[in-house]
Amino acid sequence: MSWGFLRDLLSGVNKYSTGIGRIWVAVVFIFRLLVYIAAAENIWKYEHDEFECNIKQPGCENVCFDHFFPVSHIRLWALQLIMVSTPSLLVVFHVAYRENREKHHNQKLYKSPGEIDGGLLCTYLISLILKTGFEIVFLVLFYKLYNGFKVPRLVKCDIRPCPNTVDCYISKPTEKMIFICFLVATSCLCIVLNLSELSYLIFKHSIK
């Protein structure tokens, strides 16, 4: 798929973000989106074809793969990237609403439509809470679906139509493990940045 829309969204949000928010945008764009497109997507590209079991019973390999990988890692990461970026649209829409309101009234209603204050501050805080919530939900989802963040070399499967317990082998487990750790670490970093920005804004405006 084309990720141009997400790049444009992040670029638009960057104009209205605080310093910490700009760091978040850089982390998402460089360490998550570009890594996903350039490397991670190719590693899991043929995960089903490269999943092998030591038996040729029709259907056995398919049900074992479905059991151990109920949702593709790469599709779940794509969904995570979209979901954690989408709340930023709230800020962009709110700024557009302010600009349209000034244009409609033909007068200056705000010091700056993109300045984080008043209603825009509430919208910005809500977007930060949503982004943090989505990050945590997806980390928990990954952990539950795959029984942790490790990629085993060998998995044992005894699901029908397999006639007995069979050994199945996952391709490139070490390489996949490295990328999983990297993407989980960047997700945790984004959570820290979101919470830091949330605390900063609340502290700054409570003083005012």
From TrEMBL:
Compartments where found: Cell junction, Gap junction; Cell membrane
Domain Connexin cysteine-rich positions: 134-201
Record carries keyword Ligase: no
Transmembrane segments: 21-39, 77-97, 118-143, 177-203
Pfam families to which the protein is assigned, alphabetical: Connexin
Protease found in the keyword field: no
Biological process (GO), any one: cell-cell signaling
Membrane-topology annotation of the record: Multi-pass membrane protein
GO function term, MF aspect, one: gap junction channel activity
Subunit structure comment from the entry: A connexon is composed of a hexamer of connexins.
Protein family: Belongs to the connexin family.
Protein name per its UniProtKB record: Gap junction protein
Organism encoding this protein: Pygoscelis adeliae (Adelie penguin)
Lineage: Eukaryota, Metazoa, Chordata, Craniata, Vertebrata
